[in-house]
Design a protein that fits this description.
Length: 121
């Protein structure tokens, strides 16, 4: 079981991810609507994994990832992106993301990514 922080500006996406993760026995410790909120919640909750959307208003997933990794260089972040955002995914991986998931989500892919990243200790 992993403690997970979900960061996405769309409430329905957060709900969908929460249902997938909690249905598999993981614990969602917090939800954020942008990268700044994700950073603050990461600092406060110390999750095992962050699932973060790349495209969010105010503070993007890439900016949020950079802030979190500055706070904790060992932070494990999985980036979520829509099709056609390959250059952003590459940038996120260069900034320290451990994996990426393409939207729309397939539950098995979400759980596979979480399991893979959670094992990388």
């Amino acid at each position: 079981m992993a403690k997970i922080l979900i960061a996405d500006d769309a409430a329905f996406v957060r709900l969908t991810l929460r249902q997938i993760l909690e249905g598999a026995g993981h614990m969602v410790v917090a939800e954020a609507a942008d990268g700044d909120e994700a950073y603050t919640l990461y600092r406060d909750t110390h999750p095992d994994i962050v699932l973060m959307d790349i495209t969010m208003p105010e503070c993007s997933g890439i900016e949020g990832l950079k802030k979190i990794r500055q706070l904790d260089p060992e932070a494990k972040c999985i980036i979520c992106s829509a099709m056609g955002q390959q250059t952003l995914v590459v940038e996120a991986m260069q900034c320290g993301a451990k994996d990426f998931i393409v939207k729309p989500f397939r539950p098995e892919r979400v759980l596979e990514s979480v399991a893979l990243v959670h094992r990388k200790d």
